[in-house]
Design a protein that fits this description.
The complex is a heterotrimer.
Chain A: H1 6-36, H2 42-46, H3 56-66, H4 72-84, H5 98-133, H6 135-151, H7 154-168, H8 179-210, H9 213-220, H10 225-262, H11 268-278, H12 281-309, H13 312-315
Helix pairs in contact in A: 1-4, 1-12, 5-6, 5-8, 5-10, 6-8, 7-8, 7-10, 8-10, 9-10, 10-11, 10-12, 11-12
Chain B: E1 8-17, E2 24-31, E3 36-40, H1 47-53, E4 62-65, E5 68-71, E6 74-75, H2 81-87, E7 92-95, H3 99-102, H4 109-120, H5 125-138, H6 144-147, H7 157-168, E8 175-179, H8 187-202, E9 206-211, H9 214-218, E10 223-228, E11 231-237, H10 238-243, H11 248-255, E12 295-307, E13 313-325, E14 329-333, H12 340-347, E15 355-360, E16 363-364, H13 370-377, E17 380-383, H14 397-404, H15 414-426, H16 443-456, E18 461-465, H17 473-490, E19 493-498, H18 501-507, E20 510-515, E21 518-524, H19 525-530, H20 535-543
Parallel strand pairs in B: 3-9, 3-10, 7-8, 8-9, 14-19, 14-20, 17-18, 18-19
Antiparallel strand pairs in B: 1-2, 1-4, 1-5, 5-6, 10-11, 12-13, 12-15, 15-16, 20-21
Chain C: H1 3-14, H2 31-48, H3 50-53, H4 85-120, H5 122-137, H6 143-152, H7 156-183, H8 186-193, H9 198-234, H10 246-254, H11 262-290
Classes of the chains: A mainly alpha, B alpha/beta, C mainly alpha.
Chain lengths: 316, 549, 298
């Protein structure tokens, strides 16, 4: 019934793809021209900043190597060309190729973000279902918990968790170098505030769904509370939270900057912060591009999941 | 008289919420198999709460008590939630208003209908699927096998209401409760659904019909119970209650039904507090019903199309022409999608027609620039269906009206107050509403403010788009009477757009029947109502809710 | 979606009419609202007249009482130089509030410009601005702020502007949506029918109805901005120790986390309290705006 004609599907996919490529192109352009605004000579930056007293020969060599002596428009196109082939250039500070460097960091951050997203969903779902079925006081408590959770800054939550679980109780490591145990605190740090946001959205939409006429109809058919929730209400309640997950993923990546720094965990976030501090432009651009790609993919994914859950979206 | 045969027997039902006073008090009635009892009341009368209490669904914080409450001969008072679940769907079915939201919009209708079977029978999936097809066939849905996989949003209003009924009668419950089952539907579809309910009653099921509309229920109900302010004020055979109502509230509701009432007959009682009593001499004042032949508004070959999401164009208004003469009312009637609202927007020059034009007071209107038009705008007033939405939510009634009077900021000046008060007086509102915002007013009051705003510019022409369709019938009657009054008093010409032929016939001199963007019939109201020419008009007229006493 | 749009969406949901049945007027101040009001008063006093609440000098060092845990003398304990944490937290309020307010003003200002351009100037501009915003959304969370700091270097001023910039796309989209919905509202058409000119309608209906919700947005946004600015300070990209800015205090406390948890805990607690206060107040205002009513007329 819902089979979309192949041509139509193809057109949709192509449109989305074109949109994604456009956004990536613009992201690349914005960052390219933005870093032009950095005061000072980029060759100096490569050689360790204005204080490094680099020789004119060294500067010339760097200018030639990175193409800084070319006209800006030429540099722009050659950078686009390199990005299109996946070449993210060479780090100023680390003298490494950015692509392989970031690729090695990507896994840790993705793992962190995906596990945190899943845990946030679970927490939010549990809180929403509990607080909507256990009376008014539970509802108030649930709402308060969510608001406070959503307001917790990552850096404070992380330090508090370290104090409690690593220093006082001594059950979890404060440093997340590897292993499952090391993942617990970073994941909790990212998941709790997100669960606060998702929980609020879910609880409100769950309440709305539970009061809708179709739930009354279901109850009048003799449906029990569990059926009402699992067959009808939760499906409706999850829709806004699903469409929010694209944003959530972005905010997790941004949160990874803080969390990876605090837990000394290797990953894109920590690499980005170091690069910003050292003004390592190619690395920053590389991270930005990777995050943009991840964000776009995540948006496409949430779209697809929404269509899976809500057949109405497949009709139009 | 607790006959064992009663499908439902209720004595002295009381329903309250929290600590507040009960909203349903002392309600008693019986329904026997094969009977249709209608509970009729206006919004807030407690009729829906009553219906839900009968299913144990009044809500977690509801207090329900009764001398007895017997469903199929068994007491259901104080039943546990679990015991209720076993009965709901099996012993009693529920049909709600507008199946677009009353069937889960994310699930195919077949699944929704099969749910009743899954919950109460041991039928396997294949057997359930077969039964669903039988049920869809029984409720008159053509090609059931093509429909079961559809979502409620893919069906027309009538089709999904049938599907909802199929879900409610899946287990042949001895009692079916239908809460406003036809309210959101077009009249022709409404008639079909009523016929279906009548057929179900004929099959031996007891049907409890809940409605705000006496005329609708009078078609199929054997008995009527009128509910007002939480109590049943009058119960009896339909013919008796509607033919010779004994109670004040019933009389008012019967009198308020506009169908078959000649133009000019008052629908609301003159001593209603909000309606100013009018000097009787006004009836024969010079402006009254003397269309002098001057054409105040003319539509010439109007057409307007819209782009559909898939890129094709849909003709919303197709070659529509008519003329409105001074002092008369032209009624435009049509069902949803007939193009009547687009016509209203074209007449108000809120959008430009693709072809054709509208002339107002003999001058170009849609072909003129907005700047030129602005000079004529004061002569053209408008009244909208959604009165609340037509007011700036930040403004009070005083601000709305003084703005409409063109007084701008001098709101506090005494002469402003005097003009506002006299304007409010004309529409039957007290000056106490001035500082309030429309949000704080009742539906009827809002529409009166809307009329006052339209009258502020001393218009000669009023364009009313569904002005009464969201109001209770007695309030509708008051507003219709008010429009009639101001028309006589000011010698206004009216375009009156509505889906309700009964209302249109009551207020109009001329009627235009619209269907799919075209005017299929245009003629004097009395003639169209008495001898419709076009087959569609005949169908529409046959479906009009009127008191079939 | 941006953080701000999520906040606004949540506020709008919470502002829906009461579910208890007949939606009446908004209830009187609840427990949460009263608490938030008291906290807001406390925070404002700390920002404007810190001496009133903490008469000490936030920078006065006292090496003898360094690392004192919370006690009667030092309610929140002391830091590595013996500075009183309570005094520092109270005096730090002004930095955080000013930074938060300034960042919100920048974000809101840019958002108004972009949103109004998109909402008012026809399809081509709308399309362009929308694509531009979409591109900015591909820099989620703090990424845009970090890019800005990469270019202009760390510091309080750049961090403030950076946070403002990152919130601007969210404001812009909300304002655009609001403008478009108000512009096509039935009451705007009704004003046209009454013969009002475009300018009259713009000034008397569209602008007031678009701008009123901005007050709520700004309240919600300030909480967000304070958290983000503190994050940047914590990462060493904003205010620096020994400034009594909350994020900077936390950053300084990080070194001593194993021995002096109070150095990190209390500044962070104030950030959380500020953010919660902003959320609760923002939603309360939102609810009241939705149920506009005149006192004295039930």
């Amino acid at each position: 019934m819902f089979r979309v004609p192949v041509l139509q599907l193809l057109r949709r996919v192509l449109t989305r793809l074109a949109g994604a490529v456009f956004v990536l192109w613009m992201v690349a352009s914005v960052t390219f021209f933005a870093v032009r605004l950095i005061p000072g000579d980029p060759a100096q930056a490569v050689l360790g900043g204005p204080g490094s007293q680099a020789s004119p020969e060294a500067l010339a060599a760097v200018n030639a190597q990175y193409g800084f002596d070319q006209p800006v428009i030429r540099q722009y196109f050659s950078q686009l060309g390199r990005l299109a082939t996946g070449d993210l250039g060479r780090s100023y500070a680390l003298n490494l190729d950015v692509g392989p460097l970031l690729l090695s960091q990507l896994g840790g951050t993705l793992l962190l973000a995906v596990v945190a997203l899943a845990l946030a969903w679970l927490l939010a779902l549990a809180l929403a279902t509990w607080s909507t079925r256990s009376g008014r006081i539970a509802s108030r408590v649930g709402s308060a918990l969510e608001i406070v959770a959503a307001a917790l800054p990552h850096f404070w939550l992380a330090t508090s968790l370290i104090v409690v679980f690593s220093i006082w109780l001594g059950v979890l490591p404060p440093i997340s170098t590897g292993g499952t145990l090391g993942l617990v605190l970073p994941v909790l740090t990212l998941a709790i505030p997100l669960a606060g946001f998702l929980g609020q959205i879910m609880r409100e939409s769950l309440l709305r769904a539970l009061e809708s006429p179709f739930v009354l109809s279901a109850r009048a058919r003799g449906e029990n509370e569990r059926g009402v929730r699992w067959i009808h209400a939760l499906r409706h309640a999850s829709l806004p939270a699903i469409s929010l997950s694209g944003w959530a993923f972005g905010s997790l990546i941004s949160g990874a900057v803080v969390v990876e720094t605090i837990f000394a965990r290797p990953g894109l976030g920590r690499t980005l912060l170091n690069a910003v501090t050292l003004r390592d432009v190619p690395v920053v651009i590389g991270v930005v591009m990777i995050v943009a790609v991840a964000y776009i993919l995540m948006t496409l994914l949430t779209d697809a999941v929404s269509r899976l859950v809500d057949p109405r979206l497949r009709l139009s | 008289m607790n006959e064992p045969a009663a499908a439902l027997s209720v004595r002295n039902l009381l329903v309250g919420f929290g600590a507040a006073a009960p909203v349903v008090r002392g309600v008693s009635f019986d329904i026997v198999p094969g009977e249709c009892l209608a509970i009729v009341g206006e919004s807030g009368s407690g009729k829906s709460v009553t219906a839900r209490s009968l299913l144990g669904l009044a809500g977690a914080n509801a207090r329900v008590s009764a001398d007895w409450l017997d469903l199929g001969g068994h007491s259901v008072l104080g039943l546990t939630e679990h015991a209720w679940q076993a009965r709901r769907g099996r012993d009693v079915g529920l049909v709600l208003q507008d199946a677009l939201v009353s069937l889960d919009p994310l699930r195919p209708i077949g699944r929704e209908i099969a749910d009743s079977l899954r919950l109460h029978t041991s039928l396997g999936a294949a057997a359930r699927a077969r039964r669903v097809l039988e049920l869809l066939d029984a409720v008159g849905l053509p090609h059931p096998e093509l429909q079961v996989q559809k979502l409620s949003g893919q069906l027309s209003g009538g089709e999904r209401q049938r599907a909802l009924i199929a879900a409610a009668i899946a287990l042949n419950p001895p009692l079916l409760i239908a809460d406003e089952p036809t309210t959101a539907l077009d009249v022709t579809v409404q008639a079909q659904i009523l016929a279906l309910l009548e057929q179900i009653t004929g099959g031996g099921t007891a049907v409890l019909l809940i409605s705000h509309d006496l005329a609708v229920v009078s078609r199929i109900a054997h008995r009527v119970a009128v509910m007002h302010d939480g109590e049943l004020v009058e119960t009896g055979r339909t013919t008796q209650v509607l033919g010779s109502p004994e109670q004040e509230q019933t009389r008012r509701m019967v009198a308020a039904i506009p169908a078959d009432k000649p133009r000019g007959t008052r629908l609301s009682e003159a001593d209603t507090p909000n309606t100013p009593s009018l000097p009787s001499t006004r009836i024969d004042s010079s402006t009254e019903k003397t269309p002098d032949g001057t054409i105040v508004l003319e539509a010439i070959g109007l057409s307007k199309s819209f782009r559909r999401p898939d890129g094709t164009r849909q003709l919303a208004v197709d070659d529509v022409s008519f003329a409105l003469r001074r002092g008369s009312t032209l009624g435009i009637v049509g069902e949803s999608g007939s193009g009547k609202t687009t016509t209203a927007r074209l007449l108000l020059a809120l959008m430009a027609p693709d072809r054709g034009e509208v002339r107002v007071f003999g001058q170009p209107w849609t072909t003129a620039t907005e700047k030129t038009r602005r000079g004529l705008r004061a002569g053209v007033g408008a009244i909208y269906q959604d009165a609340l939405g037509s007011f700036d939510p930040r403004w009070s009634v005083a601000e709305i009206l003084s703005d409409a009077l063109g007084l701008g900021r001098q709101r506090r000046a005494p002469q402003t107050t005097a003009r506002l008060t006299s304007l409010l007086d004309e529409v039957g509102l007290a000056a106490t509403v001035l500082p309030r915002r429309p949000l704080e007013l009742s539906g009827g009051q809002r529409q009166r403010v809307g009329i006052a705003r339209a009258l502020a510019g001393k218009p000669q022409l009023l364009i009313c788009d569904e002005p009464v369709s969201s109001l209770d019938v007695t309030v509708q009657a008051q507003v219709l009477d008010l429009l009639d009054d101001v028309q006589r008093e000011r010698g206004l010409s009216l375009i009156f757009i509505s889906h309700d032929l009964g209302v249109v016939a009551h207020v109009s001199d001329q009627i235009a029947v619209m269907r799919a963007g075209r005017i299929v019939e245009l003629g004097p109201a009395a003639r169209v109502f008495a001898e419709p020419q076009h087959p569609y008009s005949v169908e529409l007229l046959a479906a009009v809710p009127r008191l079939s006493v | 979606m941006s953080d701000l749009e999520v906040q606004a969406e949540l506020a709008a949901q919470a502002g829906q009419p009461d579910r208890s049945g007949i939606s009446g007027r908004p209830r009187r101040f609840g427990v949460a609202e009263t608490a938030a009001g008291v906290l807001a008063l406390f925070l404002l006093t700390s920002a404007v007249m810190p001496q009133l609440l903490a008469p000490g000098d936030p920078l006065a060092i006292d090496p003898l009482s360094a690392f004192a845990p919370p006690s009667g003398a030092h309610g929140f304990g002391t830091d590595e130089s013996g500075r009183d944490i309570y005094t520092r937290v109270v005096h730090g309020t002004q930095y955080s509030l000013v930074i938060g307010a300034a960042a919100t003003a920048i974000g809101l200002g840019l958002g108004i410009v972009l949103g109004t351009l998109a909402g008012m100037l026809g399809r081509v501009v709308d399309f362009t601005v929308n694509r531009f915003l979409e591109v900015l959304f591909a820099f989620p969370g703090l990424l845009l702020a970090l890019l800005f700091i990469l270019i202009f270097g760390p510091g309080v001023a750049t961090a403030t502007i950076a946070v403002g910039l990152s919130t601007a796309p969210g404001y812009a989209r909300i304002i655009r949506a609001q403008l478009i919905s108000v512009r096509s509202a039935a009451f705007v058409e009704a004003a046209t029918v009454l013969g009002r000119t475009r300018w009259q309608i713009l000034l008397r209906h569209i602008l007031p109805n678009t701008l009123a919700p901005l007050f709520v947005l700004a309240t919600l946004g300030i909480g967000q901005a304070i958290v983000w600015a503190a994050t940047l300070s914590y990462l060493g990209l904003g205010a620096e120790p020994p400034t009594a800015e909350w994020g900077a205090m936390l950053s300084a406390g990080r070194t001593y986390i194993t021995s002096a948890w109070w150095m990190s805990f209390f500044p962070g607690l104030f950030i959380v309290l500020t953010a919660v206060t902003a959320t609760v107040l923002g939603r309360s205002i939102d609810r009241r705006l939705r149920h506009v009513s005149v006192p004295g007329h039930a």
